[in-house]
Amino acid sequence: MKILLSGLALLAVTISGAAAKDLTLLNVSYDPTRELYQDVNTAFARYWLGKTGDKVTVKQSHGGSGKQARAVIDGLDADVVTLALAYDVDALCEKGKLIPPDWQKRLPDNSAPYTSTIVFVVRKGNPKAIRDWDDLTNPGVSIVTPNPKTSGGARWNYLAAWGYALKKWGSDEAKARDYVARLFKNVAIFDTGARGATTTFVQRGIGDVMIAWENEALLATKESDQGGFEIIAPSLSILAEPPVTWVDKVVNRRGTRAVAQAYLEFLYSPEGQEIAAKHYYRPRLESVRAKYTGTFPKVDLFTIDEVFGGWQKAQKTHFSDGGVFDQIQKANR
Amino acid sequence: MKNKQTRFNWAVLIGALVGVQATAAGVRAEGTNTAGLPAATIGATDTNTLELIKQLQRRIEELEQKVKTLEGGKAPAEEPGEAKSKQQLRELDQKVKVLERERELDQEAQEAKAKEAPRISLGGDGFSFASASNNFAVQLKGVLQVDSRTFFNEPGLGGNDSMLLRRVRPILQGTVYRDFDFLFVPDFAPSSGPTIYDAYVNYRYSPALQFQAGKFKVPFGLEQLAQDRDILFNERSLVTDLVPNRDVGFELHGDLFEGRVSYAAGIFNGTTDGGNSGNVDFADDRDFAGRLFFQPLRKSESTVLRGFGFGLAGTYETMSTTNTAGLPSNTGGSLPGYFTDGQQQFFAYNPADKAVVVANDDHWRLSPQAYYYYGPFGLLGEYVISDQKVSRTGVAPYDSAHLRNTAWEVSASWVLTGEDAAFAGGVIPRRPFNPREGAWGALQLVGRYAELSLDRAAFPEFADPATSAGSAEAWSIGLNWYLNRNLMVKTSFSHTHFNGGGGAGTSAPAAVTRNDENVLFTRIQLAF
After folding, report:
1. Is the N or C terminus of chain A more exposed, i.e. has fewer CB atoms within 10 Å?
2. Would the pTM of this model clear 0.95, i.e. be above it?
């Protein structure tokens, strides 16, 4: 009996001693967050190792936000999603039953640890004299923006333009529609995602102006070898709140709930916020925001809830099949 | 629509470029011809053309000069026409860039589409096709084993040498909806006709929690759980005589702690020692089986220790019906019993007074088991107890007894050509057989010793000591030649010594136990 007990004890020690975990997470994200999450992942791995002794490797997947959400619904094992808009995350609940309906209340600030907005990038010297949204509809102005049907960022662009027009023309929907139609008539090329649009504008030299995420615009201007770009902050833009959440069905199955949740909570920590700010995402934490006031231009911002009644409504009205955007495009052809 | 537009744009652009080229070529041709003709033959039109060319040349030189000036940072005042030309040039440049980018995006879209297309593959693992997401997959595999058995020194026992198809099994396996696996394996080799060996569906909630339903191997015997294509010898050892094979049932199983612990627990119809169940069983009793297997050092940095595993397995059943169907199968004889490596029956429930022996009440089994693999070396051992209550019917006395039969084995293997040995997956030759390039595959030396002991209480009331052996001891050696990962040739020799039996009679088990069994096996196996 003693021998048996000793053997079992030895076995338990062997197994528990060898049980320092080697964890992996998959973060399915949208196009322009590659560099942000490379840094976040390194910092979080260091933090998690120090806290628990477990080694965690976070893998990344990037693409158009809508496409990424569909991939997760179709079976891509995302432990966490960090997408461009809440509508795409909602789809994980509605179509995939992968997360609960109240997912947005599980983390602070509507589960959006950082924000961004929509600005313009023009070529050095601003040869087309683009100062605000109105200038985008001038004849001969060539615009680069991704396709709102495939890109979350492009939907923010579209809604920012629409919101500006509503304000300018006293909430006159017809005039707003006319304005947005004229703007999209000037689009030279539709990429499928925000990163592709940056490639089109910066590397391929196409277009006079790119409508872009602020972080993508700042990144493009800072890292461009040519140094041939300027950022134009419009008088009014939209507050973009890219949300994050863990995917319950996946983390439950893989046993990664705790580490996935900790990973997203890390984004709210001073270190996580600092990394976000360094990558030109507007931090939520006041202390970090104060440090980076010079980085982000002052822009009057409206929220999607204020102007469009939320993502669900905006999506249905503007971006569903046969919606306003489709109608505009059909008329523009 | 977009593609059409792109093609149209390209056509327009190419057309325009071709037009410009043709015009320029025409101008050059006219110039050449003119230069080659006497001045008198040059007409008024040609003079005009020459003048036009000269003007164009002057214009180009002027433009070149201006470009140089612009490049030098000295922008001359532009004339309205020049500004317009530059604007047109910029617009044309943009159009070309847009067309190029559209083509690039089209290519990206095509590549993305290709990634989403179903994948088909054909290779050493068989033929498979899968959806791009791998959520749906089907694999077609198969095992074909062509054997020969040649017996030596067997006076009085003939007609048992054979060339045979041991296994002819097409294997269909796959996955649906990512988490549901299935396997279907019929065997066309049995002379009784095609038989379903495996047919199950497995739900993978996680590696640690899986649920399997259908017909599959009972989680018990270590050697039995090795795949048929991976066993070291043509036939499994005497130990497997006491081990259930495939049965119909439900099983929870999984791997914990990154595979350091594997568990399986199931409820089955119940099958005999060494037996496969039928596809249906209307008996009320059920067989419970469970197995725990540990590989505590499989993630160790030391390769010496990684391949060590040990475990314990057990089954329990209470027979609700009393009949001979509950006793071991009767391969090689007409009555239930146990059989040799050569598949000949050396023990039968066949008392001399012709009473019929039946199984009833409790049947339990227990098996401690272990293996160790390190590089080309492999060692496997297991011990099995099978405790079966049996009763006599038909002829008095109508006694019952718990018969506790035991068996054990140790087998060792060494890959002479240095490849790694493993419990699952066999040996994969570093240099697949190709004599033209001096590649000969892999060679493995194998050896095994096994014993099976019948409970002494079996004799004489439940078995005839004059015909059945009370125990058998077998040793085997062999050489396995892996030509490649799909083809192998095996040859082995097995010697079995019997204690008891050997009395009068021309049929098994008396004729089998009369002399030691010496059998030479060969096998050609195709498995993919």
Report:
1. N
2. no
